[in-house]
Backbone:
């Protein structure tokens, strides 16, 4: 009898002319909402399934994570203290981090710029006692300030790591080519990723130094530094399954680069730009950490990398475990698969035409990104196994055919376990039932 079913399923397989390579597109994730210069997407990790959007001018908006939502609350408005030059600027409200125990203590941290002197300010705020969708704007407690000599390369991301410490990236101070030599200078926080303990302040500071920070011993180095030689890392993220810290560093004239950031690492700027010499008078790459991937600037319009996340969601199985990132100028999006032997695979997913300013995830690890005043998400035709534009029982029949014939195809491997079996069929049925 099973052979009869195999013949039936084989006939269906031929009839449907399967094309199992997944194709991707982007959609407006929240069609009723728009934002002013969104530069960050976050969730609070408190099981409320809310989305927080950072607007560069100095506001944070919050709303329920539903595509039908049409109500937005102003969580925090500090436009009266955030300062940036007019026109295009790399200043403003640039980062947001919720304390790992936010649901208990209500603390969150922001990174913004002020003038006179020009500087980055890291400050802690508290949520309102009476309204979870509103912060106490008078609760500011400044943790740290770092002077900036120029308007650009302010970094800005401020994020708690899986170790509970706060990580903050500061650009090299700006201008062009790191004229003040901050990238290779351990006596300044500029050009560095720092790591601090906000729960245990010490030595007269509003924060403490983790005992295993890599540069505590050298007297000429700043104890806060975790890694250095970074030009202007625009977004970094952890992949909790591998423990890798992924960072995307914006290039000068030749290359955009992706790094795996490790404690004590020197990522080369301004000796190197990617894997190429930037400073011809001093191009000794010994001891420098090369990028895991780079792409050439100004080819087909690309000009500025926007770092993303290793995808660990459930909606697009073909992308699980891949680092998704994009380019601000063109809206190109790629997926990078890391390989221990260095033979990494980079796939071009699609050209969105969106000025991608930042990526983020919701509480379900589903990926979102922002740009052009909107919040977007990627979608795939996965599950449409017979490629007829619909996901229905005919796709289940096609998948059963693949299982019975032991005919593996990665696009039909919905749970991404390298085996086609009944688990993939169950997942597909669930997709159909939930659509």
Residues:
């Amino acid at each position: 009898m099973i052979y009869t079913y195999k013949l039936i399923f084989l006939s269906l397989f031929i009839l449907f002319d399967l094309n199992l390579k997944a194709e991707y597109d982007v959609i407006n994730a929240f069609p009723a909402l728009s934002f002013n210069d969104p530069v960050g997407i976050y969730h609070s990790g408190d099981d409320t399934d809310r989305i927080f959007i950072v607007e560069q001018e100095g506001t944070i908006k919050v709303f329920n994570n539903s595509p039908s939502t049409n109500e937005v609350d102003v969580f925090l408005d500090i436009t009266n203290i955030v300062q940036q030059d007019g026109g295009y600027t790399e200043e403003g409200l640039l980062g947001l981090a919720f304390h790992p125990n936010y649901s208990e203590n209500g603390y969150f941290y922001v990174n913004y710029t002020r003038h006179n002197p020009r500087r980055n300010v890291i400050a802690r705020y508290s949520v309102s006692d009476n309204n979870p969708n509103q912060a106490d704007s008078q609760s500011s407690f400044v943790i740290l300030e770092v002077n900036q000599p120029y308007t650009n390369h302010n970094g800005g991301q401020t994020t708690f790591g899986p170790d509970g410490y706060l990580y903050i990236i500061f650009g090299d101070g700006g201008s062009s080519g790191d004229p003040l030599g901050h990238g290779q200078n351990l006596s300044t926080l500029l050009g560095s990723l720092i790591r601090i303990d906000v729960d245990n302040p010490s030595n007269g500071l509003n924060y403490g130094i983790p005992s295993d920070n890599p540069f505590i011993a050298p007297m000429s180095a700043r104890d806060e530094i975790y890694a250095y030689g970074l030009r202007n890392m625009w977004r970094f993220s952890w992949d909790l399954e591998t423990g890798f810290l992924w960072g995307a560093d914006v290039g000068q004239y030749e290359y955009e680069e992706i790094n795996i950031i490790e404690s004590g690492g020197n990522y080369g700027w301004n000796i190197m730009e990617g894997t190429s010499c930037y400073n011809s008078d001093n191009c000794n790459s010994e001891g420098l950490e090369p990028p895991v991937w780079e792409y050439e600037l100004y080819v087909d319009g690309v000009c500025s990398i926007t770092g993303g996340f290793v995808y660990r969601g459930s909606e697009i199985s073909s992308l699980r475990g891949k680092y998704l990132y994009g380019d601000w100028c063109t809206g190109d999006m790629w997926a990078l698969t890391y390989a221990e032997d260095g033979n990494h695979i980079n796939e071009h997913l699609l050209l969105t035409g969106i000025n991608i300013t930042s990526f983020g995830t919701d509480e379900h690890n589903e990926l979102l990104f922002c740009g052009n005043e909107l919040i977007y998400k990627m979608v795939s035709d996965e599950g449409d196994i017979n490629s007829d534009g619909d996901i229905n029982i005919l796709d289940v029949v096609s998948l059963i055919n693949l299982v019975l014939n032991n005919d593996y195809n990665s696009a039909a491997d919905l749970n991404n376990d390298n085996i086609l079996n009944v688990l993939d069929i169950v997942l597909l049925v669930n997709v159909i039932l939930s659509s």
Remarks:
- The helical segments are 2-16, 102-105, 393-404, 422-434.
- The mean pLDDT is 91.
